[in-house]
Amino acid sequence: MLTIDPKDIATQKLYGLMVSTVGPRPIAFASTVNAEGKPNLAPFSFFNMMSANPPILVFSPVLKISDKSSKHTLQNVEQNKEVVINVVNYDIVQQMSLASTAYAEGVNEFEKAGLTMQDAEMVKPFRVKESPVQFECKVTQIVTLGEEGGAGHLVCCEVLKMHIADEVLDENNKIDQFKLDQVSRMGGNLYSRANKGIFEIPKPISSMGMGVDALPESIRKSSILTGNDLGKLGTLEAAPEEKEVEEFLSENKLKEYVSESSLEKIHAIAQEYLKKEEVLNAWKILLAKSKN
Known about the structure:
With 292 residues, the chain is of the alpha+beta class. It contains eleven helices and twelve strands. It has two domains: 6-200, Pnp Oxidase, Chain A (Roll); 212-290, no CATH class. The strands form three sheets. It has a seven-stranded antiparallel β-sheet with strand order 2-1-5-8-9-4-3. Strands 10-11-12 form a three-stranded antiparallel β-sheet, with no helix packed on it. It has a two-stranded antiparallel ribbon with strand order 6-7. β6 and β7 (127-128) form a beta hairpin. The radius of gyration is 21 Å and the shape is globular. It comes from Mesonia mobilis. Pfam families: Flavin_Reduct. Residues 22-174 form the Flavin reductase like domain. Keywords: Flavoprotein, FMN.
């Protein structure tokens, strides 16, 4: 058996070991606003329910290990003491992952992830309309666990109002766990889907995804591509160049096929590429159609 003293290994390695063993962890998709009222949206897997009376949720943004900097979410709740915690299900998991990109302060992650801002009733931060369950909360306490990189800050949130989509309720107004279809976080790039098992989403940390808001309108408003599909497309830093698209069509003898096929048919083919995680090829065939 491997035995480890936390003081003897690097924080990054300890972090990796802990998140790979303490899980699967639920995800708090936290919506906040800064002092100027600009929205921020970010996921946190250090999250759980801690009390029912009063109803308390707790999530923990950690300081960045490399430079001890704090996340925008932590800065916002320190200033405004309000947050909306949105539940993440499989239908929005790719968009949630895209929202975890370290965009600059002031960038609207709702727009980057292609999610809809919905007014809350009791707090300033927006709800994620696509989320099946949303908790409007006031922040009652922030507990600082340390000052070094990797240190957590427990954000204690009292639930003021809870919103539940009709689609996940049964005939008795209880939540149907199968319809809810929640996802949870594991170590590395791994997630777990209720009753479906483990799947992978590459973490958007090595590049700055362009975001769903940067997609051409014909793609963004597709009747075929889902929010998760758009989220995958938005992870690329930039769309392929025209030369790359032409080479792709030539190599696969697709030029005539793309020209003669309907937009819906091409979008369906792109969706198949996305299911195989061939994001670049999906982009190429989508752009090929948009140039016809």
